[in-house]
Amino acid sequence: MRILVTGAAGFLGSHLCDRLLAEGHAVVGMDNFLTGDPQNLAHLAGHPRFSFIRHDVTQFIFVPGKVDAVMHFASPASPNRFSPYGYPNLPIQTLKVGAMGTHNTLGVAKAHGARFLMASTSEVYGDPEVHPQHEGYWGKVNPIGERSVYDEAKRYAEAMTMAYHRYHGVDTHIVRIFNTYGPRMRLDDGRVIPNFIKQALQGKPLTVYGNGNQTRSFCYVDDLIEGIYRLLLSDEHEPVNIGNPDEFTILQLAETVNRILGNEAGIVFQEEARDRDDPQRRCPDITRARERLQWEPRVSLEDGLALTIEDFRKRLQDQ
Amino acid sequence: MRILVTGAAGFLGSHLCDRLLAEGHAVVGMDNFLTGDPQNLAHLAGHPRFSFIRHDVTQFIFVPGKVDAVMHFASPASPNRFSPYGYPNLPIQTLKVGAMGTHNTLGVAKAHGARFLMASTSEVYGDPEVHPQHEGYWGKVNPIGERSVYDEAKRYAEAMTMAYHRYHGVDTHIVRIFNTYGPRMRLDDGRVIPNFIKQALQGKPLTVYGNGNQTRSFCYVDDLIEGIYRLLLSDEHEPVNIGNPDEFTILQLAETVNRILGNEAGIVFQEEARDRDDPQRRCPDITRARERLQWEPRVSLEDGLALTIEDFRKRLQDQ
């Protein structure tokens, strides 16, 4: 297949390009580098089946030649308000890529009779009252909160995607992505795993906000991409959660990072500077992915962190 | 003020134009007549302070001259799947006017330093677990249901509006409109009040689906417009419910219509052809409107229905 990947220079987008190329597909990467990093695609320079178009997908998209699949991964994705790449600092852009970007990429899929896969998020569940979250749960999202620029944009993108499926017959797929980590995460992403690794590599104590008992589930990026690739090839039109259901507390995560790196500086606790709408707990119910895609995660947190740390170490040395 | 009203040829939009003109403002009406009806504006032809631009607001908007306020009322609004004007039959258009239309109208407000008011809806509460619904309730909406083309578009529009307020400092206002009725509702709108009035005027029995015990609150259009006008002039940036909190069962409504019209054909009950996501009950908590706008509805259901029936009778005769 010849596959258009938007957000190709992002953390997930670039891993997706690698996997698609490894499967023998041709890939047209697209990115405007708002939050994507050209460095993530540097290794693909000169690849015979990879091409790239620098473009903002909120503007009309033209791709020369035939497209067999469109995978819409463009969007700011970090909730961190202290990061320049966090969507709180890119609110209008985040809203636009969810609506106009999804509309334009669906337009490409419709025009080419191509498969379409949209990168949605566990954020559509908001601050959930149901644990773990299954795909039938409608979510609890504040439509006017500061996080709504991301959450509502993604919910809208799902509604638009389903509308193109129902009314235009486009072969659409929706993946709801839970917390994912791995090589190429931004060092200054602001999320917990990059923060911990950076601190541990510098021999500093890891900063845990609150008591560290809030849980997260972390999926290693290769596992995620495997699930997404299966979804693309499937006949599944309903949203599918892809994530790792193993829950760890932030404290366990910090201890694991320190153990792998032999960091003896320990942990410091800081008062919780928590957003009002920040969910305390989120964990995927992956029954649907298991049953319909025969997928489940394989990489342990320990192994995944080791691979991620290796990448971070290399990049910090290069800086 | 010189006020841009999108959806000016719609039921609410046209009443809004009348009120603004009566207050001495100049009005620029805008509509693409997708669901709006030119007949609703026919009486304004030649009005010295009314002008009209036929335009689809999902496309870039240019308004010659100064604009002091923008009121974004363009959208399909009927959930009826059997009506050509119902949003189930205009899914992509409904999604687009909520996102691109809101973005473009906010752009006009930002460029002109104008006030902005967005017509949101009680549908943002979805199938609510809280009664009556107050503005702090986050709602229960199925992001991928058939109604999501409207619900999620409006939630997105609220998120976009708040983002323009927070990040661009636009003087925005959001009204969450509950069920409203009155003259100029489409005869073939498909909603319950037009259906009942049409049947009663023809001396037919009124069709009630299910047992008729599901409740609705109905606000007469003049009351609604009064609340919206106050909101436009206020400093209130948070969403405000405007609706009538008096709850009536569908059965009570049918009996009232029959009584006013002296229709002795009675009522027939039909099996409920209810949408899975169709809310059983919706009723506004109007504490915020009372406290911050000193607004409450004044027109009784009996009086409002009489005025509406008068208008329907006239229009049915003209057909």
Tell me about this structure.
The structure is a homodimer. By secondary structure, the first copy, chain A, is of the alpha/beta class. Chain A has a single domain (about 1-180, about 220-245, about 280-300), classed as Rossmann fold. Chain A has eight helices and 13 strands. Chain A has helices at about 10-20, 90-110, 150-170, 190-200, 220-235, 250-260, 285-295, 300-319; strands at about 1-5, 25-30, 50-55, 70, 115-120, 170-175, 180, 205-210, 215, 220, 240, 245-250, 265-270. Chain A has a seven-stranded parallel sheet with strand order 3-2-1-4-5-6-11, sandwiched between helices. In chain A, helix 2 packs parallel to helix 3 and helix 6 crosses helix 8 (about 300-319). The longest helix of chain A has 22 residues, at about 90-110. Chain A is globular, with a radius of gyration of 19 Å. The first copy, chain A, starts with a strand and ends with a helix. The relative contact order of chain A is 0.13. The model of chain A has no long low-confidence stretch (mean pLDDT about 95). Chains A and B meet through helix 2 and helix 3 of A and helix 2 and helix 3 of B.
